[in-house]
Backbone:
């Protein structure tokens, strides 16, 4: 049987439909993967027709990229806010508090890893529009690491920042691959040891 076309919610407007499509695409592709998620599923979750989806975005690829882009800065900003709140509550250096926040994230049942890393690894086509969006997101996370190092009175550039950023990204990737939240603690311990080294600013 062919599913009935979704009914347009009362009071629906093009911006609302667009936002629902972005939310649906983000949720479904994060949970099930970019390639495995079809436009039918996204349209059904968003309560719109496929025609509406294509009118707003033109293609599934463009929709996926737009969904990732919409979440980019808010995601990094929310992580930064949570880290600074944790550092304030515990008195810990912000760069170390980052790993406490990551551990909490890794423990959540919905955690599937970084959606941006996942998408770049899954989609091999270098021309897919999600790739530049993912690179910007990773660059934003690097900037956050630099800000937290600076707030921790540590060099915010050079070899230390490179090493800490790689440890952060490695912890995120390993947590998804192993489903082990405690990788955050091991990563934190590694950064604690790095901070003892007399790095040059």
Residues:
């Amino acid at each position: 049987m062919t599913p009935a076309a979704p009914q347009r919610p009362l009071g629906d407007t093009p911006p609302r439909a667009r936002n629902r499509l972005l939310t649906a695409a983000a949720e479904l592709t994060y949970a099930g993967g970019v390639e495995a998620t079809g436009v039918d599923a996204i349209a059904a979750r968003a309560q719109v027709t496929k025609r509406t989806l294509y009118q707003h975005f033109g293609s599934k690829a463009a929709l996926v990229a737009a969904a990732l882009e919409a979440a980019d800065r808010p995601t990094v900003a929310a992580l930064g806010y949570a880290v600074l709140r944790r550092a304030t509550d515990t008195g810990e250096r912000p760069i170390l508090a980052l790993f406490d926040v990551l551990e909490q994230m890794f423990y959540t049942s919905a955690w599937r890893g970084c959606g941006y890393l996942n998408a770049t690894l899954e989609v091999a086509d270098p021309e897919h529009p999600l790739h530049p969006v993912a690179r910007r997101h990773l660059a934003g996370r690097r900037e956050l690491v630099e800000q937290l190092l600076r707030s921790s009175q540590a060099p915010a550039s050079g070899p230390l920042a490179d090493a800490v950023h790689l440890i952060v990204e490695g912890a995120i990737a390993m947590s998804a691959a192993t489903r082990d939240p405690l990788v955050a603690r091991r990563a934190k311990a590694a950064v604690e040891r790095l901070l003892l080294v007399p790095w040059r600013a």
User: Anything to note?
Assistant: Residues 60-90 form the longest helix (31 residues). The radius of gyration is 19 Å. Residues 92 and 126 are 41 Å apart (CA to CA). The domain at 1-58 is CATH 1.10.10.60 (Arc Repressor Mutant, subunit A).
